[in-house]
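Problem 12. The chain below contains 322 residues. Write out its predicted structure in token notation.
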Amino acid sequence: MLPYKTLALGLLIATLGVANAEDRAGFPQKPVKIIVPVAAGGSADKLTRVLAEKLSEKWGQAVIVENVPGASGTIGSAKVAKAPADGYTLLQTGEALTLNALLFKKLPYDSAAFTPVIKAVVNPQILVVNPNLGIATFAQYVAETREKPGAISLGLPTNGGIAQIAHEILNQRTGGKVTYIPYPGGGPAAVDVIAGHTNATLITLAAVTEYVKSGRLKALAVTTTYRSPALPEVPTMAESGQPGYSVESWQGYLAPAGTPPAVVDRLNRDFAEVLRSPGVKRELENLGYGVKAGTPQELAETLAADATRYGKIVHDAGISIQ
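Solution.
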């Protein structure tokens, strides 16, 4: 496991160091595959399937979404890292790419195995509980985690992911403790809270928007400094007794390192066009996403900033994955 400051520098250099090569005329000339390294049904899966449908229409080529869950997303990431660097195999990811490099002692791919394509969206994490739990507010939840350490079971969309980091930040501030139950994705984690197998989950808002609106889950607070327009009645943690608390997560797409710059530019341009199209933008915002559609450089900077910020949190909390 690299020191987080070294990792931040390495990620920035690696993501900017794209090999020079000529673009292939008329890219894409065959189907494009997007690997989603978590189980179907979560926010990453929902986002990617919306974009895949529109990109397929734009390109006149099939865009295949393949869910490859397991090992906190490292199995799917390794599949993309080992794919040809031609733009036809892409990785959906977020903070997990950086967190896995911080948490795992050894990864099945090199940390410089990817080049950024686009930071697609940002989104709050949201704390939700089973409506029958008897906890109606964020303040009650915090009190329960302090007064009965470990009594609340909290499903994690992935082991060591942004949800766990966000909750560890909360634990450090409040002195609370929960029992983490890891899942291979947000979909299964949410379903088990609804079924009462676990008490709560901290999850990307877009994964549970409809569940909250229908009353199948009770939302307590979001992690960002702003309320989500998709669920404006849900307060922030900052305004619910934790001033200054802020975790905004993101989701985007990467290609294998060495993908020709012109192909990366084409991918970025077309992803951004789809993301900004009125119908897609409205659909994603209704789920709770904020559309960013940034440049590859902006994604490179985000990866480096994540390594610095979350590296300190991982170190201070003593979190690791064998």
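Discussion. The radius of gyration is 19 Å. Students who got a different answer should revisit the alignment rule from Section 12.3.
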